[in-house]
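Listing S7. Sequence submitted for prediction.
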Amino acid sequence: MPKIVDHARRREEIALVACQVVANHGFEQATVARIASAAGYTTGMVAHYYDSKQDIILAALRLMLLRIEERLTRARARDANLLDVLCEMLPIDAQRFTECAFWMAFWGQVSADKKLKRLNVWVHREYMRLYARCFDVYWPEWSALTPEVQGRVLRSVATLMNGLTAGAVTSPRDWPAAMQVEHLNFQLDLLRRWANPRRGKTGTAKGS
């Protein structure tokens, strides 16, 4: 009886391995051959699932975003707060460090590649969507803020998260998990103090 192959699972496995290879060796050195070898497949087998290295990278990007969303869902189930859920996107453990190192390697190639620039626009939009979702669910006064104030808060958070990610990936000894969380908490407190006086006059906070 022929062996049944789960092709969706195999595609996901290759994408996960690609994430690890890029994190460990950098974008340029993460060749299709190296990804195939790390996954235990031939390059021909990988080519059966992906047409190019960029296709693999795109699949890895989508998979990382999906895994972040899954962690956010689990965090919501355990009655988390805004700090908890945003920490799901920081490199505070081995798995998240690998994901963030992958993002960093990807970002390092964006400026010189038009296709990667387009991918980065999509990634940025997805991250902003996730941040907006976090604030909408976990910041009670969010709905009372004007769209302009909400936008400024989201851009500030995106800048902060990118900075923490870059610092922790490039200088992990200087940015241990506890310091990342402490700094994020500090900045969220500052943002709350700045945003609350700027509530829309007709807005109504959730839960009020």
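Caption to Listing S7: primary sequence and predicted structure tokens for the chain studied. The first helix runs from residue 7 to 25. The two ends are 63 Å apart (CA to CA).
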